[in-house]
Amino acid sequence: QVQLVESGGGLVQAGESLRLSCAASRSLFIINTMGWYRQAPGKQRELVATITRGDSTNYADSVKGRFTISKDNAKNTVYLQMNSLKPEDTAVYYCWASSGSSWGQGTQVTVSP
Question: Are 93 and 45 within 8 A, CB to CB?
Fold first, then answer.
């Protein structure tokens, strides 16, 4: 398994931006896929974005064009740049690694109208 530590959440107004970071305890070169999921109150956890070892990315339709997932292999860190945030983006955001299906502890993102 991989230990994952998220950071960067917070409270912003609609239209503003945030960048989430996920630091992994192991080299990203040995992890096939990293991703971000989110869970809003009363809802199921849903996929936000993924990035493969080869830098292929995938996004939920609801965030396409607004969110960008990227990684820095030298820092073992994955990022989620979130622009044009909407109130419906409010959720706890979780980092995920395909290695052992590992999860971070989550970071709260709250977007006010």
Answer: no
- Long-range CB contacts for residues 42-47, cutoff 8 Å, separation at least 24: 43/91, 45/94
Surface-to-core class of residue 100, CB atoms within 10 Å of its CB (0-12 exposed, 13-18 middle, 19+ buried): exposed
- The pLDDT tens digits along the chain (113 residues) read 899 999 999 999 999 999 999 999 999 999 999 999 999 999 999 999 999 999 999 999 999 999 999 999 999 999 999 999 999 999 999 999 998 889 999 999 999 99
Tokens of 1: 């398994």
Q: Is 99 helix (H, G, I), strand (E, B) or coil?
A: coil
Q: Phi/psi of residue 112, each to 5°?
A: -90, 150
| C-beta separation of 107 from 7 below 8 A | yes
